[in-house]
């Protein structure tokens, strides 16, 4: 038998590590396919909501546009088809000084009430953020109760307060010695009417604004506030340089919503008018549309005013919408 002798490897060969095999190449994908799929999927998911939104809002807006191009009169109340007049309703409105008086009145009213509401709501939010637990709970419950009260019920109370015959406001003024308060009608003059209306609208809107701003204040980090206190910042400086910039997006949103809501306010103004004021001197856009449409049966002109009201709302809110989009980007 022949024996084989195995030659041991040399130290140099043993020191050389094995060469790893080249990695298997991944399968090539078509460029842009995943990106297109990822871009289409959100659109497909949002599509049903967009279709429902367009169907729910597009039909009323389209109906308003078509109606604003027609003329409604006494014959239409007995079944006659409306007459197509094109842009005559808009031309008549543009040359009507009554409309421009109502527009100026409505814009001033909505801007004043919106800014006052945000200011008062912000002050209440800061107060809730500063007081103790039980005081904060009382404030929150009070705001929720005021906000949950139905509009008609709240207006019944407010009309009783400012009533010129047996109102609480005149009774208090008489007892504190104010001359001429007995029997004074706060709703007869346009200036006092809009002061009362502004107080009512602000009172009904403050709970939403206060709770929204307070929710934003609770998101401010305590470490930032404590660091500012260590640096010697006072309460006003913390409010101006820390809280205000951090809750600025919330302030922008609530201010935008208040401008939109106060521009188309209707129920409060209508009920106050019915309580004892001259409607032609205290009309805002909402009550003016109601007066033209339901009161006079001129649905074409009322629809034209509604379209102008929509354009005015977009014009007033466009700047805030652009700022919100810039912050989002």
Query: What is the level 1 CATH name of the domain at 96-297?
Result: Mainly Alpha
Q: Provide mean pLDDT, rounded.
A: 80
Tell me which CATH architecture of the domain at 96-297 applies here: Orthogonal Bundle
CATH-level-4 superfamily name of the domain at 96-297: MetI-like
Note down, in words, how this protein is organized.
The protein is mainly alpha-helical. It has a domain at 96-297: Orthogonal Bundle (MetI-like fold), CATH 1.10.3720. Helices cover 72% and strands 1% of the residues. The chain has 15 helices and two strands. The chain has helices spanning 11-15, 33-68, 88-94, 97-130, 133-148, 151-162, 168-175, 190-217, 222-230, 235-246, 248-263, 267-274, 279-282, 285-295, 299-328, and strands at residues 70-71, 83-84. The chain has a two-stranded antiparallel sheet. Helix 2 (33-68) packs antiparallel against helix 15, helix 4 (97-130) runs antiparallel to helix 5 (133-148) and helix 14 (285-295) runs antiparallel to helix 15. It is flat. 22% of the residues are buried. Residues 103-320 form the ABC transmembrane type-1 domain. Keywords: Cell membrane, Membrane, Transmembrane, Transmembrane helix, Transport. It is found in: Cell membrane.
Overview in brief:
Residues 1-35 are annotated as: Disordered. This protein is 72% helix and 1% strand.
């Amino acid at each position: 038998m022949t024996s084989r002798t195995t030659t041991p490897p040399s130290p140099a060969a043993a020191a050389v590590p094995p060469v790893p095999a080249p990695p298997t190449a991944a399968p090539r994908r078509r460029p842009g396919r995943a990106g297109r799929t990822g871009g289409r999927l959100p659109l497909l998911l949002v599509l049903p909501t967009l279709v429902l939104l367009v169907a729910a809002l597009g039909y009323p807006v389209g109906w308003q546009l078509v109606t604003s191009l027609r003329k409604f009169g006494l014959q239409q109340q007995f079944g006659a088809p409306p007459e197509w007049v094109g842009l005559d309703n808009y031309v008549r409105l543009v040359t009507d000084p009554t409309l421009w008086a109502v527009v100026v009145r409505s814009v001033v009213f909505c801007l004043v009430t919106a800014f006052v509401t945000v200011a008062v709501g912000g002050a209440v939010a800061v107060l809730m953020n500063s007081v103790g637990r039980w005081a904060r709970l009382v404030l929150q419950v009070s705001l929720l109760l005021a906000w949950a009260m139905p509009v008609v019920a709240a207006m019944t109370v407010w009309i009783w307060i400012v009533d010129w015959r047996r109102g609480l406001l005149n009774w208090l003024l008489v007892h504190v010695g104010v001359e001429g308060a007995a029997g004074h009608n706060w709703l007869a003059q346009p200036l006092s009417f809009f002061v009362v209306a502004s107080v009512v609208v602000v009172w009904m809107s403050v709970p939403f604004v206060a709770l929204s701003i307070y929710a934003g204040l609770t998101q401010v980090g305590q470490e930032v506030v404590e660091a500012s206190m260590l640096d010697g910042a006072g309460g006003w400086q913390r409010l101006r340089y820390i809280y205000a910039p951090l809750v600025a997006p919330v302030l922008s949103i609530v201010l935008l919503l208040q401008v939109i809501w106060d521009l188309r306010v209707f129920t409060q103004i209508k009920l106050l008018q019915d309580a004892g004021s001259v409607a032609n001197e205290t009309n805002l856009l909402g009550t003016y549309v109601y007066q033209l449409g339901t009161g006079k049966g001129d649905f074409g002109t009322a629809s034209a005013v509604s379209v102008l009201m929509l354009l005015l709302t977009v014009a007033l809110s466009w700047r805030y919408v652009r700022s919100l989009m810039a912050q989002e980007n």
